[in-house]
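Aggregate trends can hide what the representation actually does to any particular protein. For completeness, the protein is quoted in full, as a sequence line and a line of C-alpha cells.
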Amino acid sequence: MGLLHANVNKFIYFIMLLLFVAQPVSAGEDKCSKHKLHAGLMFELSINNSLRDDLLFRFCIEEDAGYLFAELQQHGFIWREQIRPDYVFKSEVKLSPKKTEKLKDMYLAAMIHSKSDQVRGLDGSTWCFRPKSGMSYTEFCYWSPTLDDSEREVKHINDLGIYLLILSGLEKEGASIQ
C-alpha cells in the first residue's frame, strides 16, 4: 500500500508541475515566432522615452498576412493633486497586403541605410531597432532620431517609428514619439 501511495503522490506532483509549466501560447506569440526563416518576427522597435511613455512595436509575418503588435506603457505618477496609475495598452493590427509590403520596404531601408551613431543625451528617447537577419537578430540603438536626422543618417529609423505609431493606433491612447 505504501508503494502505491508514493507512486500516486509522484503522479499528482507531476501533473501539477505540468499545469504550472505548460502555459498556453497566445496568438501573437505564435505569429511572432523567432524560429521561422522567412516568417515570424521580422523586427522589433522599442522606444523608451525619458519624459513620456514607452512604446514597443513588433512586425510579424505569416503565410497569409502581416501583423503589427504594439504596446504602450504609461508610467504612473503622483504630481501635486494629480494621480495617474500605471497603464499598459496592447494592440494587434492585421495589415493589408499593401501595408505589409510598405512596412517590409521601410524595415529593409532602415536596416540597410541607418548607420550606428554615438549621439547621446539625457532627455529624449532611446530607440532600439532589432532587425531579423536570417535566423538571428541584431540591435541598433539611437538617441532621439527625431532630432537632426538628416545629418545623422537615421531618417529611415525615424520614418519607420512614425509609420508604426500611425498604423498601431496608439495615438488614440495618448502615445507620442519624442
